[in-house]
Write a structure and sequence with these properties.
By secondary structure, this protein is of the alpha+beta class. The chain has eleven helices and 15 strands. The chain has an eight-stranded mixed sheet with strand order 2-1-3-4-5-6-7-8, sandwiched between helices. The longest helix is centred in the N-terminal third of the chain and has 25 residues.
Length: 464
Amino acid sequence: MPSLTLKTIHSSSGSIVFIKSCLMATKLLQITLAVASLHWSTVGAFSSVARSAWTASSSSCVTSASSSSPLFAGSFYDSPQTTNINNISNNSNNNPAVTAKTPLKKKDLRTLARFLEVECWKSPGIRNLDRALLAVSDACKQINRIVQRAQTDDLYGAALDPLTGQQVDENIQGEVQQQLDVLCNTLMLRAFCGGSNNAICAVASEEEPLPRSCADVMGYDTVHFLAEGEYVAVFDPIDGSKNIDASLPVGTVFGIYKSPEGIKRGEHGWSLDSFLQRGTKLVAAGYCLYSATTVLVLTLGSGVHGFTLDPDKQTFLQTHPNMRIPDVGSLYSFNEANSREFSEPVQQFLEKMKESGKIGGKKITSRYVGALVADVHNILVNGGIYGYPSTRDNPKGKLRLLYESAPMAMIIEQAGGAGSTGHERILDVLPSAIHERVPTFLGSVENVFELDQFHKYYGEEDEH
């Protein structure tokens, strides 16, 4: 076998010439190995010799090159565990072929469990809610997985009765219940009732006609079991479920009230008066957004905090502490396909805004996803106004006060924004029924105030 000697060639482009020399030497070794394999019976000892030569020459190339050429520094030949992120950043400016082999270090962030432990300890009025809220976060993780698997696991279509195989009845909203609606509703029911350590005594879901005691939800024989709970929970298990088919964001909304003192629970283990309270009585509210990332936004009455689900650890981490909505924003989120059906004040508001072209000195931008959680989250982060007004066909709008409007209004107000029906503060509205609807406007203070002024100027007392 011919001997191969590699020498570093010094020139104005020494590094490049050296690399070419290494590649030529490597190619010669490959050819030699191929020829030797044809004469294996007569050259039995060649394999070990050739492999030694291969290893030595390759090692020599890499070792010498890493010291003489910056192309190799912190690049292809480094082990993934020792890649220098700073070197990669610097070298990538000169050579786009340089890529990072290692994941960036994770931030040292506080977990949701630790946040709840501290916050509930600080506020004796909600001290018993940490278990319930952790259970809700677990339900959000499960709903997130269901949403991601809806296409592959055939979770679309109308829900069927497991006993009869027939399509289930329409829900209280007059809508045919979908499989996803039923699954997500069950997860939220069991989270509040089974994971709250008896803190929650009853629940009301947007998917069901009446509230239910937790004893009923958990299948216990007596309605008096778990009746000592001080709180009731309301929720919309899956908002915007029609978006899933197009891989668009959806969400879950929830709120928790404390039962008024002296309320007597009826024969079913709950009292309607425990639910028919103004939004100002909410002790906690939150939503989960299932999108590019899974985000849980929560308020306990002292600010708003955002938590992102770590996909590796399946743990919610506090990535957005003390969220604040800008005082004025350039985004507006309305379903303008229905604009001709909007009341005159809303139509005038939208027209004047588009005529001016700017809000707060910024060019206006329209964003509408069609899911309350996604649209309001965008407004919360960037500022602006979200609106679901009344229409001729729906004079009170379509959003439910208890399950959607009041919890979201609490979150927005705690972040420094405002929530209005166009005539009054959403949190001041006293519901007369658990599925009552209200026109809903949420967002930056300046934007919502401007909309309210249009309602005052153009009248429309008949909307009350």
